[in-house]
Design brief:
alpha/beta; 3-stranded antiparallel β-sheet; 8-stranded mixed β-sheet
């Protein structure tokens, strides 16, 4: 039975997400009778009424009215790598769960024996490999090359120690993705797919646009960007205590790492401004329940796909 505790990181939330990630697609299970709410662990595409929306807004106003002092803000922003290293030093590879939903939500990453041409995939914020390792484990593509980077040197160290890690097919490295110029082991316009899963939310909003622009630079014409991250009014946002807010919708968790909560329009503006064409932008409102404790937990995630045009405009 899944249980929810106060948010600590991409998924105190990953643990919550694991409860329902065997669904084959968005909208798989609808709650049509409130009496059935505790008959399953989760319900997809749950509609919020105006009252619930207002309650969520009031909770955010309450926990974000008092902002963190400027001296503390600077510490969390300038020493972000230290907080991530500390997190991975404590949890190693045991905190994040395998993303069983990965191949159903992003079939572009799924094993496909019919793909014979060489493909290259790059993940920003790869952590300890919860996205890349399943790709390496199940891929049947003979010419697949996968790259990954992370802010945390500790995360990369743990990743490379995993038995599934294959240095012939995969290369991971430490990099701050917010830098104006990326130091990467591949050329401009060389990547078929770039993956951003629960990583952009860990970056200051002022630096997100440059990340999107660099993704555009390194994707091939026709290449695809896959994005999944926290949505506005997600349970994790509503649970923050007063004084943990750095700026609107940007918070510091108990372990010192930052997290931002997006709207669909913010994500759309971010990537279309960089030059991408939108192929998908969906909000995944999911009701997760703890049947043992009779608790309802409302999660909000945003999932998008953006394509780099074949001919840049």
């Amino acid at each position: 039975m899944c249980d929810s505790t106060n948010s600590t990181k991409e998924d105190t939330d990953a643990t919550l997400e694991e409860c329902t990630d065997k669904r084959p697609k968005f909208g798989n299970r609808f709650l049509t009778n409130e009496d059935d709410v505790f008959s399953h662990n989760a319900w997809d595409n749950v509609e919020w009424d105006e009252e619930q929306e207002q309650q969520a807004l009031q909770a955010v106003v309450k926990n974000s009215t008092v902002k963190m002092p400027e001296t503390d803000k600077e510490k969390f922003k300038s020493e972000a790598d230290r907080f991530w290293d500390s997190f991975y030093g404590v949890h190693q590879n045991k905190f994040f769960k395998d993303r069983h939903w990965l191949f159903t939500e992003f079939p572009e990453l799924a094993p496909n024996k019919d793909i014979s041409e060489a493909r290259s995939i790059f993940e920003l914020g790869c952590g300890v490999g919860n996205t890349i390792l399943p790709i390496l484990k199940y891929s049947q593509e003979p010419e697949l090359k996968v790259y990954g980077c992370d802010f945390s040197a500790k995360a990369i160290e743990i990743f490379k120690s995993d038995p599934v890690y294959d240095a012939k097919r995969c290369e991971v490295f430490v990099m701050d993705a917010t830098l104006d110029e990326w130091q990467v082991p591949f050329a401009l316009e060389s990547q078929d797919i770039i993956v951003l899963i629960f990583v952009l939310s860990a970056i200051e909003p002022q630096k997100m646009q440059r990340v999107a622009e660099n993704c555009y630079r390194y994707l091939k014409p026709g290449g695809l960007l896959l994005f999944r991250d926290y949505g506005r009014y997600d349970l994790a946002q509503l649970r923050f205590k007063s004084g943990k807010c750095l700026e609107d919708n940007l918070y510091v968790r108990g372990d010192g790492t930052m997290v931002y909560f997006f709207t669909q329009e913010e994500v759309r503006n971010l990537f279309t401004k960089a030059g991408f064409v939108e192929e998908q932008n969906v909000i995944d409102r999911r009701l997760q329940v703890n049947r043992g404790r009779m608790l309802k937990m409302y999660r909000v995630w945003i999932q998008t796909k953006y394509r780099k045009p074949l001919i840049s405009t």
